[in-house]
From TrEMBL, chains A, B:
The gene is cinA. It comes from Myxococcus virescens. This is CinA-like protein. InterPro entries: CinA, CinA-like_C, CinA_C, CinA_KH, Competence-induced_CinA, MoaB/Mog-like_dom_sf, MoaB/Mog_dom. Pfam families: CinA (PF02464), CinA_KH (PF18146), MoCF_biosynth (PF00994). Residues 4-170 form the MoaB/Mog domain. Coiled coil: none annotated.
Length: 421, 421
């Protein structure tokens, strides 16, 4: 089934709003085994909308259109649809009833501009909107079925889930030639995209039913696996086979699948180990603590975080000896190690992590230029370990990769510890 | 000038990624007086990309294409461009040099898949990418000028700002029929979008040359003012007139304009007051510290942040008396006030801020359900002030609005203090 989306509205082509309705719908369709072929965004320009409707209807089996159904002067998507189909707009008695009921519920009656919403193309099917005034409108154009939805995300989603997706699913189920898909996202850290690609390339010929894809979501790289087959069980089996190989190849660089977040995985690994964590941050300034505490239930394992932006607080909160700071400076292996040990001590946790470095744009020394970060892990029964990394890019990027590297030191340590009998 | 955007990538049509590159580019072009006519998103399907390129080039003067320039097997946008133009792909010696230099800087040499990035359509102009390996490629197709950019947002933006927009601006400047625009974004906190809309509505008739727009970027709401005229000076004058009125109407709810970030404004207000700040966070878990330290130079005024997720650390780091915790619990006015005073004391700063609350989904009490947050400000010469807020929504939203409310208590205090003679 060929599906296209058409989104209308000046706000979508002038940078005012990012179109998230499409993302939502694409994901829901993909779950049904349908990959959207094309998404088109046009402004509130009648000939552009009419033309885009005709083009989409000429290519696709289903076109989902959003926006321009409301009461205001720049809402004219249905006029364009009527023109594209060569039919007039007509007031629909049922939609008129719905409008009156909806306004009456608030003690009002619809004003003339609201009544415009009762005008739909002749021969189309209006469907009541549980969340708003403008109805869903279903109509045929050429060989395509068109669904017109309001652009307001809450209304868009309600009509999509309640009406549009069930109808698409029913059509799919009735088709003999349906393609079944199975999908897995493998999430990695610490492996560059081109390396990932090189490692995966030789697997292609062995897995002809798999489409491999790559996505960079710094500091993570994701490998997308999609199996296509003529039955769900074949698609599932093909996916399972390639997933096993990929897991072997990625090893511990693979941290999670599908929607699992890195922070949630780290916290879960700690929880399974019965361990707790504290963090002392200088250049990342609370980023690590914030990432961890964004996960519900993190308070079970995350005990405390010290954002120690001054030398004084490095000593006061996490016990870095003033002479270490004086001899080695705040950005040094010695300070990082003292911070990791000190925060672990102060919070009485199993593990302590620390970060200190030059995030830029100012600061740095000839030996440790901007982008240099010292990351340390204090763990029971082993010497404190510090790693020095050099991150290119701006302040945000340095902080992001420094946070990731530091947490990854802990995750790898936990994995190694749990692997040792 | 007719401009269209074409974004390629399976991740854009399967719901994995929301296309924010387009939003960014649309806004930048709009500043130049150009409204994008159409945005098209297609998956990694060669005939679809080739077809979409041909269609866009047949309609537009300029087509900006993003995605599919990288080293992996699903990167083939330039192959499609070559096919659409009827020319071969050829290895470009200069791009090859850039690749070798880039890899050499990291002590590596490019692998075979990276070398694919040196192959560009015959007759096209490659431009060096300061942020990545894949170059910008400029070429003609029919009457249109095509710009091919990597989809990675950092690289996309760098090449857009450094190369694409200056070239488009130069072309625009050479045209006689140009519309001039002037633009201001007024950034507010603490005023709902519908209230903003109501306040602005009566201004419309007095300012016929102004297009008013609204943008919600939680927890902020932005008012967009755009003046259109046939000369730049007229546009500037119309904008200045409406801006004065808006500033009066918004008062201190207006915190900044255009690209000013809230955190940067708070830090600058502190700096001007010669003041310093420390923060103790419970439910926001480092979010406030992270927002502030993301701003370059924040270390001048931000001294320390304590993420005190346990009762023990609330006492140890910011001196909350154990009996306050025992009597009033960790989520209470008394604890919030003790945290703000304690962190100010520990860090020796002018101001201390604190947050404690139930971010959810777990936790809460009948009196203080999930979404209840206590925010406190300790300042010199006045009693510590605590405000209790109730935020609806999920964990992320509670944390976001709690952080914003807390910082806003400080900003309003600073504004009031600087207004008093």
């Amino acid at each position: 089934m060929r599906v296209e989306l058409l989104c209308t509205g000046d706000e979508l082509v002038t940078g005012l709003i990012t179109d998230t309705n499409s993302t939502y719908l694409e994901a829901r369709l993909f779950d049904l085994g349908v990959k959207v072929e094309r998404v088109v965004l046009v402004g509130d320009v009648r000939p552009d909308i009419t033309q885009a409707l005709k083009e989409a209807a000429s290519r696709a089996d289903v076109v989902v259109v959003s926006g321009g159904l409301g009461p205001t002067a720049d809402d004219f998507t249905l006029e364009c649809a009527a023109e594209a189909a060569g039919v007039p707009l007509e007031e629909d008695a049922q939609v008129l009833d719905w409008l009156h009921l909806r306004y009456a519920a608030r003690g009002l009656s619809p004003n003339p501009s609201a009544l415009r919403m009762a005008r739909v193309p002749r021969g189309s099917e209006p469907v009541r909107n549980p969340e708003g005034s403008a109805p869903l409108v279903v109509m045929k154009l050429g060989g395509a079925q068109l669904f017109f939805l309001p652009g307001v995300p809450r209304e868009f989603k309600a009509l999509l889930e309640g009406e549009v997706l069930p109808r698409i699913r029913a059509t799919l189920d009735a088709r003999p030639e349906r393609t079944y898909r199975a999908f897995r996202l493998l999430r990695t850290v610490g492996i560059p995209e081109s390396e990932l690609d090189m490692a995966v390339a030789p697997m292609g010929p062995r897995h002809p039913r798999i489409v491999f894809g790559f996505r960079t979501h710094a500091p993570e790289n994701h490998l997308k696996l999609m199996a296509e087959a003529s039955s769900q069980s074949e698609a599932d089996a093909a996916l399972a086979a390639v997933e096993v190989e990929c897991r072997q190849m990625l090893g511990t660089k693979l941290f999670g699948v599908d929607s699992e977040s890195y922070a949630a995985v780290v916290l879960e690994t700690l929880r399974r180990a019965g361990a707790t964590l504290a963090v002392a941050e200088s250049c990342t300034g609370g980023l690590i603590a914030q990432q961890l505490t964004a996960v519900p239930g993190s308070s079970e394992v995350f005990i405390g975080g010290a954002v120690v932006y001054s030398e004084k607080m490095k000593s006061a909160w996490v016990g870095v000896p003033p002479d270490v700071l004086a001899r080695h400076t705040a950005v040094s292996r010695e300070t990082a190690e003292a911070m990791a040990e000190g925060v672990r001590d102060a919070c009485g946790t199993t593990y302590g992590l620390s970060v200190t470095g030059y995030a830029g744009p100012g600061g740095g020394t000839p030996e440790d230029p901007v982008g240099t970060v010292y990351c340390a892990l204090s763990a029971p029964g082993v010497p404190t370990r510090c790693e020095r990394i050099s991150v290119t890019g701006d302040r945000d990027r340095v902080r992001l990769f420094a946070a990731s590297h530091t947490l990854e030191m802990l995750r790898q340590h936990l994995l190694a510890a749990s692997a040792t009998p």
